[in-house]
Amino acid sequence: MKDKPKIVIIGGGFGGLQAAKDLGGEDVEVTLIDKKNHHTFQPLLYQVATAVLSPGEIASPIRRILHKFKNVQVILGEVVGFDLTKKSVKLADESEIAFDYLIVAAGARHSYFGHEEWEDSAPGLKTVEDALEIRRRVLLAFELAEREAYLTGVKKHLNFVVVGAGATGVEMAGAIAGIARQALANDFNLIDTKKALVMLLEGGDRVLNTFSPELSERAKKDLEDLGVEVYLNSFVTEVEAGRVKYSDKWINCDVLVWATGVAASHLGKDLGVETDKAGRVFVNNDLSLATDKNIFVIGDMASLKQADGKPVPGVAPAAIQMAQTATANILNDLKNKPRKDFKYWDKGSMATIGKSKAIVEAGRLKMTGFLAWLAWLFVHVISLIGFKNRLYVLSEWFWAYLTRERSARLITGDADELRDALIFLEAKPETKISLKKSN
């Protein structure tokens, strides 16, 4: 009996998961490899970071999602490279997995533009672990300020800085402002959380620059109405523990969040083909490599231009559509049918700024305010995996909308790390606290 074609998928994000679903039930052997055992709905990570949702409400075990497909095997492991001659994937434990077809969908991380040492002081937001670390820092900053006021009588005003005014940065800044001015406003006796400063630094000339200028301006106004100070044309040039430098001036900050720049997974460079400055792999129109038609690269790792010359954006709908094209081409190969080129269908963009504030743009359709916020809520709830997840998220949003309460306000992390922060505070009460990311 002839062996079934072996298809290996790297990554359990939007693209990898869609590819596994599309190949589930087909006459092929599928192996999905990811170093995490769960799929994360990344567009809602900022809500975990700002204590609206818990991780389990936006993440689901990959094995559970794919359990009905008996031809799909899920492997927990970290891919570190390839042997393209032997057609195998190398794992960190030195084991190898052979393939006939390979789909690389390992995603991307934030780029620090050659300054990786900034990450400890300015974490990005791509994983559940990132979100929990940012949540810890934000909540701990308020707790330490209250403690300082109790012990010393010094009531300092906190300063939160978000770098990058794309969707993640805008949503993050608006959510932090919501925590300070609404959710925590009545919980502290000595400090006034409503006086916390939230700054959004953007190197470009407007926020959300993928939206139309009028929607971009509306988003900026909504942010300012929430109390966020928006600084445009403000490039960050230095980052240190407890402070950041932009436009040739230093400012102190209690929490710094990095939401700009994209660097594709290092695995792209290991494929032995040309990549762009962000590490994205240049692919053919059918999403395969120029050097190997049986290897596909999709999602944030792929660099491909649309018919109008614009690059395919690194967003979830694009990754899902790429997965559908790649799997269709593999199945067409097996049926001796011609491949098809990838064509991106832009379903529109949306971003939420705060309670009842959002913007939506889909072709000529433009919405703002409460209706846009309802549309954003509906799309994100529908996109979540699992009926239970949708119910949980809806209930949490409804509760937060009515009461302004955040149900996931837990400070997690090493107790020794908290002790070190307190010791530092007692030694230098006038100094801003450095909340270094745990290993």
Task: Give the helix/strand layout.
Blueprint: E1 6-10, H1 14-23, E2 29-34, E3 38-40, H2 45-49, E4 59-61, H3 62-65, E5 72-76, E6 79-83, E7 88-91, E8 96-98, E9 101-104, E10 108-109, H4 128-152, E11 159-163, H5 167-183, E12 197-201, H6 213-225, E13 228-231, E14 236-240, E15 243-246, E16 249-252, E17 255-258, E18 263-264, E19 281-282, E20 295-297, E21 302-303, H7 316-334, E22 349-354, E23 357-362, E24 365-368, H8 369-383, H9 387-403, H10 415-427
Parallel strand pairs: 1-2, 1-9, 2-5, 9-20, 11-12, 11-17, 12-13, 19-21
Antiparallel strand pairs: 3-4, 6-7, 7-8, 10-18, 14-15, 15-16, 22-23, 23-24
Protein model, in words:
The protein has helices spanning 14-23, 45-49, 62-65, 128-152, 167-183, 213-225, 316-334, 369-383, 387-403, 415-427; strands at residues 6-10, 29-34, 38-40, 59-61, 72-76, 79-83, 88-91, 96-98, 101-104, 108-109, 159-163, 197-201, 228-231, 236-240, 243-246, 249-252, 255-258, 263-264, 281-282, 295-297, 302-303, 349-354, 357-362, 365-368. Helix 6 links the parallel strand 12 (197-201) and strand 13. Residues 422-439 have low confidence and may be disordered. The protein contains 10 helices and 24 strands.
